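INSTRUCTION: Work out how this chain folds

Fields: amino acid sequence; protein backbone structure tokens

Chain under study, with its fold:
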Amino acid sequence: MNSLSVIDEYRQYLRRKYILFTAMFLLLPLAFFLSIMVGPVKISSAEMVRILFGYEASETHIRIVYHFRLPQTIAALLAGAGLAISGATMQAVLRNPLCSPFTLGISGAAIFGAALVIFLSQDFIPTTGPASNVFRHFGLATVGAFLSSCLATALILILSGKRSIKPETIILIGVALGAFYGAGTMMLQYFATEWQLAAMVYWTFGDTQRATWFSVKIMSLFVVVSVIYFLSQSWNYNALALGEENAQSLGVPVRRMRLGTMFFVSLLISVLVASLGIIGFVGLVVPHAVRLWVGSDNRFVLPCSLVGGALLLLVADTIARSISPGCLMPVSILTAFLGAPLFFLMLLNRRDV
């Protein structure tokens, strides 16, 4: 009887996790559809269905949906999923609950790269509206952000490859890199012209409005490849939670796994920041919330973080576009305002899981 009760309890334990994942997964299409509907131009739900399924509709509305809203919504979904699962894997592999993608300093490096390109481009004059970044379609500023973040990634990988470097030290390296690149960005802003300064500040906002179909394709490729790797390592992350020596005794290649995870996290965050800018707290808050609900088993934490991050950023992006009619607020402002107090509340109510 005792053995049967234990099995029943375990099945009930698993059932709760599956229910949570299924609920979030089923909410995604609804959030996706609502996100496409929201914007300065009102489009009815009936007409939106006709547009999405290829039926006859207003030519203007078709252009708005396919050239602006769909890329923006897909970008929010991809960025939320990528940031959340990156945060979850970092917290697992470094065994530090305060880890997030941006504690590595990669976002600061990306902003510095974009600011440097803008500073060196004397002819840079931004325009107004969603297309205010004239370097569209992975232009010079985006390429500069990506290359700079790749340099930071390479430095982190080289240092983390040393056997004497502990996981906690990698976080300190990220903090130091963030401070260094932040100082460099401030120096460029100090000597910049009025137009250059406006363009640099624009890059510090994480904004899905700058997404294009080209950047969505690039983001999709890196998100899919990274997610496949992270999910394939979920059992190894669970073993690592028992300690490095225990994980190695179970046959886990700890050093190679940590390098591989950091490589994919760094590369994925580089692409996301170079595409959309800095979107904070998603990679920190979502994994913490998921662990409070499903426990610390990474076989469930990673997929739930993936779906939860996508859902959170879709909802946040929709709210940001609907707060003030005619004013499309960058989603990073809303995630920062909501993420900080939510994380504070979770820390106050935190229990070991």
About this structure: Residues 28-348 form a domain with the ABC transporter involved in vitamin B12 uptake, BtuC fold (CATH 1.10.3470.10). The chain has one domain: 28-348. The chain is about 75% helix and 0% strand.
